Amino acid sequence: MSFTLTLKSFFGATQSDELLMRRFAESGANDLLVKLYESCGDDLFHFILTQSDHTLAKDICQRAWLKVIEKKHLYRDSGNFKAWLFTLARNILIDEFRKNQRPTEEFAQLAVEPQLHGALEEQFDLALTNLPFEQKEAFCLQQEGFGLQDISNITHSPIETVKSRLRYAKQSLRKTLENYHD
Amino acid sequence: MTKLHRISDLDLSDLYQKRKQKHKAPGSIKRAVVLNNTQSRIVWPSFNMLAGVGVAASLMLLVTLVVVQQSQFNLPLKRTELTLIEVHSLDTESLSLAENVRQRHAQHYQNYLRQQQILASHHKKSAVLNLAAEGWELRTCEKELLRISSELVAALQHIDRVDSGLKNGDYVDVDFDKNGLIVGIASAKSLPHC
Q1: Which of A86, B24, B71, B186 gets the highest tally of CB atoms within 10 A of its CB?
Q2: CA distances, B120 to each of A2, A73, B63, B193 (Å)
Q3: In this predicted model, what pLDDT tens digit does every residue of A124-179 receive, in sequence order?
Q4: What would the pLDDT profile of B143-184 be if each residue is shown by its tens digit?
């Protein structure tokens, strides 16, 4: 029952986002943009923050939303708005990494080793931050409600590779959290 | 193990959502995005108006150019005709002056050359005929002695180019062609003034 409700709300939200985006592309109205932002803004920021740091995430998200405004005429009706938004943001992030010649693993390497004491949330936070870039983004995208095909499209990777990254990511997270429980 | 696995999956999702709740997007992003959209909406109508004015001006300019070009397209034939007439009149005027003299001189010179050619090809010399055993001898006023073989005399007589009845000491007119060859011998119509 709960799963059905979640599924309905997910599809409802998706349709709503697409409808909002379609209307925004036609009118450019501020209220529609605000609704879209309220629907996906926090999700996008958290996704980018997990891949980078606070300053860069803020910059990337702002640029991604500006791109939505700028390229609104390119949005296709058949597309999932959230997937389109995440693809734009991820491409900007990758371009930023390439421009500054920063490896995607840099942020993971900066993370602190997980400690055996502290809250479970903190352990999860550290474990997630320590994941390799590709595993981290695959896990985050799945948690954001994207299917394997969507993740494959957003990350420009084959589905089998996505599956493999998800498996490794979950194994790694599970291992860290099991150690914490023990 | 299976139970642990299922719980772990749910836990992971739960932990992820909790983490997301702790990291909300800063309000500055929303403000900047909305402000940008507002500015772009303000810019768009004025841009549209400017674009409209620009398009209208371009169309007017295009129409003007087409009209001007079309009117000019009809003119060149008339102008060309007029130009030709002017050239003719200038040419006639120049002929009446020095050019006219030059042309007349050239025409006279051509006549002179033609007459000289005629003279060269059909000139005659007066001479005194002296009949000799081996042929005829002709002594001209320039004290030149021309010997004519019997064969040539016979050949000339054969084509009726030698007067019959010529005798020793007669004054004759000797006809030469343009190459200087004797083509006829006839009795002189008038006495030579040597």
Answers
A1: A86
A2: 134, 100, 76, 21
A3: 888 999 999 999 999 999 999 999 999 999 999 999 999 999 999 999 998 888 77
A4: 788 888 888 888 888 888 888 888 888 888 888 876 778 888
pLDDT computed for residue A100 by the predictor: 81
Q: What are the backbone dihedrals phi and psi of residue A131, each rounded to the nearest 5 degrees, phi first?
A: -65, 150
Residue B4 is which amino acid?
L
pTM, rounded to two decimals:
0.55
Measured between alpha carbons, how far is B15 from B27 in angstroms, rounded to an integer?
24
CA A51 to chain centre: 9
What is the ipTM metric for this complex? 0.82
Report how far residue A28's alpha carbon sits from residue B41's, in angstroms, rounded to the nearest whole number.
7
Do residues A124 and A134 make contact, with C-beta atoms less than 8 angstroms apart? no
Residue B12 touches chain A, beta carbons under 8 Å: yes
Q: What is the pLDDT of residue A114?
A: 46
For residue A61, the chain B residue with the least C-alpha distance is B29
Chains A and B: how many Cβ contacts under 8 Å? 81
Considering CB atoms only, which of A33, A49, A58 is closest to B34? A33
| C-beta of residue A123 within 8 angstroms of C-beta of residue A177 | yes
Residues 6+ apart with CB under 8 A from B67: none
CA–CA distance, B32 with A57 (Å, rounded to integer): 15
